[in-house]
Amino acid sequence: KDLYMIDRWGRGYFDVSPDGNITVAPLQERGSKISIADVVRAAREEGLRAPLLIRFQDLLHHRVRTLNEAFNRAIAEVKYRGLYRGVFPIKVNQLKEVVEEILEAGKAYHYGLEVGSKPELFAGLSVHTDNESLIVCNGYKDENFIRTAMLGRKLGKKVILVAEKLSEVRTIARVAKEMNVEPLVGLRVRLMTEGAGKWAASGGEHAKFGLSTAEILAACNILSEAGMSSAFKLLHFHIGSQVPDILIVKRAVREATRHYAKLRKMGHKIEYMDVGGGLAIDYDGSRSTFHSSMNYSVEEYARDIVHNIADICDDEKVPHPNIVSESGRAIVAHHSVLVVQAFGSIEKTPSTPIDIQAEEHKLIQALLETRDNLTAANLAESWHDILQVKEESQKMFELGLLNLDVKARVETLYWENAEKMALLAGSLDQQEAPEDVVQLRTQLADQYICNFSVFQSLLDHWALGSLFPVVPIHRLNERPGSDSTLVDITCDSEGKVSKFIDLSDVRDTLPLHVLQGEEPYYLGIFLTGAYQDIMGDIHNLFGRVNEVHVFLDSDEDCGYYIEEMIAGNQIREVLGLTQYDTPGLIQRVKAQVDGAIKQDLMKPTEGMRLLADYERGLKDQTYLSF
Ligand code: PLP
């Protein structure tokens, strides 16, 4: 448990059972724990194998409650005179079941939705039923976007259109008049405060979104000229996702609240202050300002927002606005775990030593001599010697002066030497060990081949270097036997995981257990519920993975049930997405089989059987089946 720092990033949701399995307690306080290995087994019995995405739906409830109660407590503590009206940004996880679960959990708090595109608005309008809660519309908008939002207004919903551009304010005013609706308008202010971490560019004066101070005043004029001054209801800002440092949050809140206060004093009766997203997740458990972490808690976040808004409003003597936040990552990241199967490993170091022959090639003799005389004192020199031998052997091979068997023996002995040196370096004082040799540990790491696609399921790791905790879901009562990296099954050298969480840093390898023959070995990739599912692409046509939705069983203390099973993509489905229709595929292969039969390359019965196999294979899932 300590090796993988589960208590640090798991936040009470994840633990290890005495028999070495990872467990999940979706509702921390109830204590019921679900073994992930049990869920994998149950799904497998129903035909759904890894890669398997497991959603713990009750965990969503817990997160929604945690956030809303943190704000409500902070409001009570400072006797704040406004309400908290949070919204969930659909873009962070659009899956209908996830959104519905969140809305259900948020009913008591009038928790609403944030949408950033037309499709999200269409989805949002249909699942949103609580007219006390908000629908905040961010992102660039065309006339149809605005008309659809007005439909929401006609249905009695508090749909707030947050303008990103002045031209949008004009269109909102015109369409509202045409449709005879009272619009609710928000303006996104472009703050000077810049975020930090990987999404810092969402804030600051060069951000893609938001209105400058001059544009905000111009927007107010447009509304008042249209006789709609009172429509300006919300002031919004967003300084980027995953803000690791609370000081930045405080600074942004204070800057935005000053804007609110000055606008209020000018007579604009703004009712809501929307602080956007940014509430981070402590992916590495370091509680630091590292990009994969955060140096604050949800409670501190809520307290600081409420306190700072109150402070500036009191200073400026303006009413406290209702507070909106758009936390996505903090609501959904914990609830899903991706389970992948490691089904083989690529080992750098030879498992069997070479036989030494009487008359060895001089390169081999040199490597043997280095190996047999290696000591801490000559470590650096020995390392340089074997590098030279490796280089020489490559040159000789290119000139045609080295046979393959000698080349193979040189390589084997080189890696054997390297492993010995890395071990020796590991036992030395850090000051003494040559850096090159210390780095060898990473080069020597085994690569575990895992049945999944980084591009489908872990896009932010590939694209942005985001870190996710990776832990075997079983065998945690056994000592791991290898330091490894992971490679996926795409034909792309970028399809790998070779950066892992460490305290405030990154480590290059992960301790894993030695694979035992055919015995499946499963790894859980945790905290993947935010953004990863939807941003994944179909590189190599792998497509969606199998998915199960797990609920705690209210009758039994330790029980759970799988409410929904969603099979991953079939081969014919992903081919359909790239214009290969199933009948067309079969027809073309049949024509080729007929041709082969005519040329006597196969018997008709064999041809028909192979064609039937091809047809059946199109319904197989895209990932490998073990
Ligand atoms: N609101 C807006 C406008 C966003 O652009 C984003 C994402 O970057 C969010 C909310 C959600 O942010 P987070 O997932 O950090 O809570």
UniProtKB/TrEMBL annotation:
Keywords for this protein: Decarboxylase, Lyase, Magnesium, Metal-binding, Polyamine biosynthesis, Pyridoxal phosphate, Spermidine biosynthesis
The protein's matches in InterPro entries, at most eight in alphabetical order, are given as: Ala_racemase/Decarboxylase_C, Arg_decarb_HB, Arg_decarbox_C, Arg_decrbxlase, De-COase2_N, De-COase2_pyr-phos_BS, Orn/DAP/Arg_de-COase, PLP-binding_barrel
- Active site, renumbered: C491 (proton donor)
User: Do the record's keywords include Metal-binding?
Assistant: yes
Gene3D superfamilies annotated for this entry? 1.20.58.930, Alanine racemase, Lyase, Ornithine Decarboxylase, Chain A, domain 1
List each copy of the Arginine decarboxylase helical bundle domain by range. 358-436
In terms of domain of life, where is this protein from? Answer: Bacteria
Q: Arginine decarboxylase C-terminal helical domain spans which residues?
A: 571-624
Q: List-wise, which residues carry N6-(pyridoxal phosphate)lysine?
A: K91
This protein's cofactor list reads: pyridoxal 5'-phosphate; Mg(2+)
An example Gene Ontology biological process: putrescine biosynthetic process from arginine
Q: Which family does it belong to?
A: Belongs to the Orn/Lys/Arg decarboxylase class-II family. SpeA subfamily.
Name of the molecule in the record? Arginine decarboxylase
Identify the gene encoding this protein: speA
